[in-house]
């Protein structure tokens, strides 16, 4: 019999924090009133994390361990957990105890009220460095301003998703995955639970500045073509500037007579060529943007529910999507 709830935790070199995590998960499982499975996805750990998890899974049938063949990264590890989760709802959380297991009770309660996605939003980030807190704030505001879908700021991957949301997520085939953006894109009824983010339960963060920068770039480029349109805007600005330079050059030549032979025509030609290059680059960027949208192969729409005498139930069919 399939469990009602699945809890997915990506793990990468978290040997130091796992004993405390396992104990708190045990308490959580006792407090939950629904049948639950816990799926640990070991993302190529080089320490003793995998063996520790295997021992725990042998002792508790509610625990499952997926061991990836190498380190694929945080987002692919979560995707692997979603693909193997059997529950009617799936909670995704990190294994470093900065996502408190006790908050899962609140997430499940809101799911019971009829919400398909329950985001866990950080109320405060007191234990993050000033640099990380500042860059996170800048990124979330920038992302919200250029992405044409409503997003939840200051929320990571700690959330609950209903079965139909998970099925819709499985249908998205893109390689560079920014899951918190994809969850917003699929839609359905969404709400927020706020919590105070504690410090790590042990070990050190696995997200370097370089990884955070690449993650932010994946998020922006996965959901916005604004960077491609920058060339068009630059072309317009350079074109206006070129016209102003051309007018100034003509004035210097015909009115002030202070230019040397050939200078005026050279300035005008160079200015106009620069403007044309940027405008043509912007046009090319527009077509590249359309190719980019097409190759992601996201469905044109997702049907949340169908109601008719002949239709199958929502649980049997799941959300339906159409890709063309």
Give the helix level as a range of percent. Answer: 40-55%
Major sheet description: 7 strands, mixed
Order of helices and strands: EHEHEHEHEHEHHEHHHEHE
Radius of gyration: 26 Å
Distance between the termini: 36 Å
Derived structural class: alpha/beta
Average pLDDT metric:
77
Annotation field: number of helices? 11
What are its keywords?
single chain; 324 residues; alpha/beta; Spore Coat Polysaccharide Biosynthesis Protein SpsA, Chain A; 2 domains; two-stranded antiparallel sheet; 49% helix; 16% strand
What would you note in describing this structure?
With 324 residues, the protein is of the alpha/beta class. It folds into two domains: 5-223, Spore Coat Polysaccharide Biosynthesis Protein SpsA, Chain A; 226-295. Strands 3-2-1-4-6-5-7 form a seven-stranded mixed β-sheet, sandwiched between helices. It has a two-stranded antiparallel ribbon with strand order 8-9. The chain is built from eleven helices and nine strands. Helix 1 (18-31) links the parallel strand 1 and strand 2.
Secondary structure topology:
Elements: E1 5-11, H1 18-31, E2 36-42, H2 49-59, E3 63-67, H3 74-84, E4 89-92, H4 103-112, E5 117-124, H5 130-146, E6 155-162, H6 163-170, H7 179-186, E7 190-196, H8 209-223, H9 226-254, H10 263-295, E8 301-303, H11 314-317, E9 320-322
Parallel strand pairs: 1-2, 1-4, 2-3, 5-7
Antiparallel strand pairs: 4-6, 5-6, 8-9
Helix pairs in contact: 9-10
